[in-house]
Amino acid sequence: MNLALDIIIYPLLFVALFFEVFALLSFFDKDAVARRKRRENVSYPTVSIIVPCFNEGSTVKGTVDSLLAVDYPKDKFSIILVNDGSTDDTADVMNSYSANPQVAVLHQANSGKHVALNNGIAHATSEFVGCLDADSFVTPQALKRVMANFDDDKIGAVTSSLSVHAPKTLLERMQEAEYLFGIMLRHSMATFNGLYVTPGPFTVFRKRVFEELGPFRSAHQTEDMEIALRLQRAGWKIQNAPSASVFTKAPTTVTGLVKQRTRWSTGFLRNSFDYRDLIGNPKRGVLGLLVLPLAYVSVFSGILLLVISMIRTTEAAWNYVARALEVPFTWDMSALTFDWFFLPISTISILSMVALAIVFAFIFIGAKIAEKDTRFGISLILYFLVYNFIAAIWQVRAVADVITNTKRSWR
Angle at Cα 223 formed by Cα 74 and Cα 403, nearest 5°? Predict the structure, then answer.
């Protein structure tokens, strides 16, 4: 049994370490270094930011106010609010901004986020269009820093550095660690055009992209992945603005987190299957040969590692009980000693510690890139010890949903 498990674990560790080292080396690429220093364009093209809303009455005001505080020429920057048939007070909150010359307010029957985005794009007259989820908030310098990264005519979209807004609970802080890890990873992968998602919280596109490739699609409730894959297939580049900080509300319960991530994971599996010609395609470079294949590996390895952990934990517990039954019980604790020499050190444990140390470094690099003064503590320990087991739950559900063709609601 141990040999069989080792045969599975060694390749997974090798792949993880290979990818981590590749990402670390990419971080020091000269283009990546230059983009971390890029702050502002010489010129300011026109930009419209679309905020699609469905029952976001409690958060949309903060989202719009953060956009109105953006440091960008007002005559070059507009905001388009699209109410997607909300049943709460979202429409009233949005209408309160109607008198602002920078803001346009649109209302439509409930049709889905992708339709709301397309409605906003149709009303935009700017050269660039962006999107911002109604539970997210931008920093004043974010737009300038995003636009500074459109330095190539083939760059069709630029993403920002996304992290958790005001994390308070342990679960939110664990998600913050994950988001900071993602900041580092997206920044490194963008160096070689390896991004396959353009997140709803503040991605800006050339409007010409939609004129050439068509509008957003429903795309298994993950339109931000589908449009990114469509861009990649068409030969456009997707860049990342590492210093453009954006914050989003994170799920506050395990149930909410699993539901959100199940949708994301099933969206990835289904969209990537729709664009399966990109996977393993050497013409797609890092995206086709490394990023997409390893994204599949990460989904299934999470499930495998959960199973392996359960097997080994059960085996260790069984062996402990068996030995305890063989030895008479005693309350004499004086014989208990600890010696570092007898710790169960193995090649697998050493490689695992190296891999975890690199993840730890990525999290703090991500915080540095996003200019966040983040203090962790026990939440970081729980991220390593607990979060991956929660992740395995949504990975199992995602795979099961794809196999059984199960469709789940957005909320």
Answer: 165
